[in-house]
Design a protein that fits this description.
binds iron/sulfur cluster; disordered C terminus; 3-stranded antiparallel sheet; alpha+beta; 4 helices
């Protein structure tokens, strides 16, 4: 009885020696993340029209926007903070953004020592990159009105 069970167990163990390995040797091996992966956030400040739709669409009041009006009465972004400690990672803010200024990144190593460090100041920490697209031009009068 005991011998039969042992042989059965050994057969299962030996069988797994030849299986395809599923364990990733992280951090030496980096994961191949899917295109729709939701990591952290990045904001293309040059593209943002300070419309506030991302903040209005957020169910958890995560996003705080500051803006001023320029000489043409057009809103200009002056601050963009995300209290990501409250974020649900639902993606409503990214979906709501008309010029696609707010985007997901594939950053996933987001552990920090201090709780406050988890929150993001996307305006203060913005670094223009060649990948950033140009500011969106309003397509019609409705867009122009929304942007101002
Ligand atoms: S992902 Fe959801 S909860 Fe997080 S900031 Fe965007 S809308 Fe708010
Ligand atoms: S929805 Fe987009 S364009 Fe409007 S304030 Fe948010 S990030 Fe800026």
């Amino acid at each position: 009885m005991f011998g039969k069970g042992l042989i059965k167990g050994l057969k299962i163990t030996m069988g797994h020696f030849f299986d395809k390995k599923v364990t990733e040797q992280y951090p030496e091996e980096r994961p191949n993340l899917p295109p729709a992966f939701k990591g952290s956030f990045k904001l293309n400040v040059a593209k943002c029209i300070a419309c506030g739709l991302c903040a209005n669409g957020c169910p958890n009041n995560v996003i705080k926007i500051e803006s001023v009006k320029d000489e043409n009465n057009k809103k200009k972004l002056t601050g963009y903070k995300m209290m990501t400690e409250r974020c649900l990672y639902c993606g409503f803010c990214v979906e709501a953004c008309p010029p696609k200024a707010l985007q997901w990144t594939k950053d996933f190593e987001l552990a920090v020592h201090l709780r406050d460090d988890v929150n993001l100041d996307l305006f203060a920490n913005y670094t223009p990159s060649p990948d950033d697209e140009k500011p969106a031009e309003p397509k019609n009068e409705e867009d122009s009105a929304q942007a101002s």
